[in-house]
Specification:
By secondary structure, this protein is mainly alpha-helical. It has helices spanning 9-34, 40-53, 60-82, 86-113, 122-140, 142-147, 149-173, 177-186, 189-202, 208-228, 237-251, 256-259, 262-269, 271-289, 295-320. α1 (9-34) packs across α13. The chain is globular. Keywords: Membrane, Transmembrane, Transmembrane helix.
Length: 321
């Protein structure tokens, strides 16, 4: 998430907020539920915020949607800087994200092998797959993106629509499980495309009505995905996607005073390491403590270990870059 050539203050604030929402969702809401604990604070937030607004999963999907929009915004800038040459674009994306994801997967596998409990749910793996799929489609369409950005985005959405429908077919027939997984990842790609559209409009590569139409098509695909994959219907993802888009667009031209603070800069620059460390390190550390100490003590310890792991990953990534 820190690969932008010219950081945008509002995007930095959105990134920091999204990481915090994801940490709260997985290390507080989800972990407490799965391990039979209750928290008055979590119950109050659910009853007074989550349920009235329709934002489910303890803000987890809202945070993921915001991060996907940030990813789309960032990757769009990298694609434009690369021009029509696919190799520099692919190389920069690989250097920026692949080592972090590979290390996180290896650590998760090691922790599982020794009996720990990292979180490897689709809630974590599917967004990573969505970003990879978004980047792959953009890579294929890079020459078109350079010449006619609006048309390239429309073709992207057509490809995504076909993949979502194919994944729905695989789900309904129970065949080709890999196609189902790809379809579920494709269902999140429109969220990254919304960030891409925002970047293209911001740099005057899209007319206002073009951006509006493409944005509505992205949201329509999110609604379609909910119909195709009924297991997600209870979480009201389209509504959370609309909230995320509104927050993203409101924050985009603002946030300069907040973005300059040390905490926001740290969260923004380490967003990807934090995103993978929360389920791999933080969740596993919580699992190792819950029989010994109370959640009120275990959660801060887990957050500290998560931040330390993310800092280590960030520094290793900087050395490799």
């Amino acid at each position: 998430m820190d690969e932008r050539r010219t950081p945008v203050a509002g995007v930095s604030v959105v990134t920091a907020a999204a990481v915090c929402l994801i940490a709260y969702s997985y290390l507080v809401g989800l972990w407490l539920d799965r391990h039979g604990h209750s928290s008055d604070l979590v119950l109050v937030v659910r009853n007074w915020v989550n349920r009235p607004t329709g934002v489910g999963e303890d803000f987890g999907f809202l945070g993921v949607a915001l991060l996907l929009m940030v990813a789309g915004f960032t990757v769009a800038g990298i694609a434009r800087a690369a021009g029509a040459d696919r190799l520099p674009f692919a190389a920069r994306l690989a250097r920026g994200g692949l080592p972090t994801v590979v290390v996180a997967a290896a650590v998760g596998a090691l922790l599982t092998a020794v009996g720990a409990e990292p979180l490897v749910d689709p809630a974590i793996t599917t967004p990573v797959g969505a970003v990879a799929l978004f980047a792959l489609v953009l890579l294929v369409l890079l020459p078109l993106q350079h010449r006619v950005p609006g048309l390239a985005v429309f073709v992207q959405l057509e490809v995504v629509c076909l993949l979502v429908l194919a994944g729905g077919w695989a789900t309904s027939t129970g065949e080709l499980d890999a196609l189902r997984v790809i379809g579920q990842a494709a269902a999140l790609v429109p969220l990254a495309t919304l960030g891409q559209v925002a970047w293209l409009y911001r740099v005057d590569l899209l007319l206002r009505w073009h951006a509006l139409v493409l944005g509505l098509l992205c949201l329509a695909l999110v609604v379609l995905a909910e119909r195709v994959f009924p297991e997600t219907a209870a979480f009201w993802h389209p509504l959370a996607a609309v909230y995320a888009l509104l927050l993203f667009l409101i924050a985009l031209p603002r946030g300069a005073s907040i973005a300059g603070t040390r905490v926001v800069r740290w969260l923004d620059s380490r967003a990807l390491p934090l995103f993978v460390s929360i389920p791999v390190v933080g969740y596993a550390v919580l699992g190792a403590q819950h029989l010994v100490i109370t959640p009120a003590v275990a959660i801060p310890i887990s957050l500290t270990c998560t931040c330390l792991a993310a800092e280590l990953l960030h520094r290793c990534r900087k050395r490799l870059a």
